[in-house]
Amino acid sequence: MANKKLARYLEDIESTERKIAELKEHLAEVKKKQKLDEDAEIIKSIRAKRMNGWELLELLDNIQNGLIVFQPEETEALAGTDMENEQVQEDAPESEDVDDESK
Predict the structure, then answer these.
(1) What is the pLDDT along the chain (103 residues), one digit of tens a residue?
(2) Rounded Cα gap, residues 67 and 96, in angstroms
(3) Tell me, what DSSP letter sits at residue 68?
(4) How far apart are CA 69 and CA 78, in angstroms?
(5) CA gyration radius for the chain?
(6) Contact (Cβ atoms closer than 8 angstroms) between residue 68 and residue 62
């Protein structure tokens, strides 16, 4: 009986190790695709600036020399708060109009 339990443990270990290897391979592939998509997005963003060759070269040189620093965007929660503030500011003139009409 003890041998059957040990055999099952060994089979389970082998199976789990195979699954781990497959998941590691899958993770590496997903990370590779993510990097390709990020690179494509960067290229798309830079090309949207419609710079001539010299301007583009100057921009890339400045990025590589550390003269241009990119700041990560704020979290969505903070960005949502900014949007709410914009909506309040947009609503404010309307409420003033209502006050003017009542006078």
Answers:
(1) 579 999 999 999 999 999 999 999 999 999 999 999 999 998 898 888 888 889 988 988 998 898 888 788 776 555 555 544 444 444 444 444 444 444 4
(2) 46
(3) S
(4) 21
(5) 28
(6) yes
